[in-house]
Design brief:
115 residues, alpha+beta, 3-stranded antiparallel beta sheet, 6 helices, 3 strands
Length: 115
């Protein structure tokens, strides 16, 4: 990931509805959600939701897959990982002790027994 990709992703997430949508999609991995369910859950009109999803998609944070008459949206967890690594790659000047609290905060959600 380079600066412009990170800026694009962060800009897409720098809006309340899009951040809520992305977090909701992360919670619904790996199944994803159709646009109608997303719109109802976030309480925005479906056409507004589509515009937000288009922004997130252009930033590489979500993907959409047509299933019959619906489009199922999923969070792109690889992009989330790349963004997170990009942001913390040089964490604390390489001092592992200073980075330990950050790693500890990330670990519980990602361990086999955590979720």
């Amino acid at each position: 990931m380079d600066n412009s990709e990170a800026i694009s992703a962060l800009a897409a997430l720098a809006q309340s509805t899009r951040l809520d949508v992305f977090r909701l999609l992360v919670r619904h991995e790996p199944d994803g959600l159709p646009v109608g369910e997303l719109a109802r859950a976030i309480e925005v009109p479906q056409n507004t939701m589509s515009a937000h999803l288009a922004t997130l998609s252009r930033a590489g944070l979500v993907t959409g897959e047509r299933q019959s008459r619906s489009i199922i949206y999923r969070a792109n967890l690889d992009a989330l990982r790349e963004l997170t690594v990009f942001l913390v790659k040089d964490c604390c000047g390489g001092n592992a002790d200073l980075c330990a609290p950050l790693i500890a905060d990330l670990t519980p959600c990602c361990t086999a027994g955590g979720a």
